[in-house]
Amino acid sequence: MAEAYIVAAVRTAGGRRNGRLMGWHPVDLAGAVLAEVVARSGIEPAAIDDVIMGCVGQAGEQALHIGRNAVLASGLPASIPAVTIDRQCGSSQQAIQFAAQAVLSGTQDVVIAAGVEHMSRVPMGTSVAGAKPYSERQLARFGVRGFSQFTGAEMIARKYSHSRAALDAYALESHRRAAAAVERGNFADEILPIEIDTPDGTRSHAQDEGIRFDASIEGLGSLKTLVEGGVITAGNASQICDGASAVMVVSAAALKAHRLTPLARIHNLTVTAGDPVIMLEEPLFATDRALQRAGMAIGDIDLYEVNEAFAPVPLAWLEHTGADPARLNVNGGAIALGHPLGASGTKLMTTLIHALRKRGLRYGLQTMCEGGGIANVTIVEAL
């Protein structure tokens, strides 16, 4: 039976909006993680069959095929092909799944799945500025004037009776877990330090910039809601973030031929779609399907990474699945660490694999909500 393995996984530390990574071009940031994932794997670059790069804001400095441009900036051979994909926030998680499908099919043996998003230099909405992405026919079908993730988050909060206090409490726990992870050195093995220029000279950016080590429930409670009468604030939603990440997926044949050391085996690949209006609820149902296809129960999974796009999403996921909150986002999530859109899929996978191995645990599940009501679920087995 064909199998797909992850042999290297790396990410940059997240940069806050207009923060430490502001001076880095997104192509160079993506190129840096490509070069590093190859170096960490120990494989000869000529053996790489393809690069699949997730990116949501494919405009400005992220336009004109950033996947290919990143290969050319990385120092890797120009003979390595690439493709850039957009499945919204799940873009690089889908890159992992496409890479695994290529390997499982026997079409390719060594594929890098990666993602990048520089939300400071290419702000959200850049690619649709002045455009009308939704047609009247599409809007009429669903009886709406537009589709909004913010509306979806508020809808989930109402549906699952999430109070503002409950969302802020969840956000505070995300910061506390992330701060504790930094203090324990949990991220050290997964982060590629990035050299940045400062007024005091060159420094190494190796710690996620968005973590609030002094976060408090009072501070979170003082923030205004994004819509009047709502419960979502900037404090209980994911942070705008700059970053890049990459994982290398290989076949069993490549594992043997190149004497690679596997970090994890890919156990299940699932993607589903549902209501595009509430939009962010689909991870709940995608998880049901993934577990059923894998012949597993939620209790069989040791750690979960559920993207914290907005606090109602992981809270609703916990309620729906009956999962153990202690196993969820154990090192904090996007509320504290940031959500670099197209890079988040491979970022979460990097964190999940390292967390499983550090704890001596076996199975991990990753899922995230995506624009249009789509969700990916990937189950891995740490080795």
Automatic annotation (TrEMBL):
Gene3D superfamilies linked to this entry: 3.40.47.10
Active site (UniProt): C89, H339, C369
Signal peptide coordinates: none
Pfam families: Thiolase_C, Thiolase_N
UniProt EC number: 2.3.1.9
Keywords assigned by UniProt, alphabetized: Acyltransferase, Transferase
Keyword Transferase: yes
GO molecular function, one term: acetyl-CoA C-acetyltransferase activity
Chain ranges of the Thiolase C-terminal domain: 260-381
Residues covered by the Thiolase N-terminal domain: 5-252
Family to which the UniProt record says this protein belongs: Belongs to the thiolase-like superfamily. Thiolase family.
PANTHER family xrefs: ACETYL-COA C-ACYLTRANSFERASE, BLR7806 PROTEIN
Protein name: Acetyl-CoA C-acyltransferase
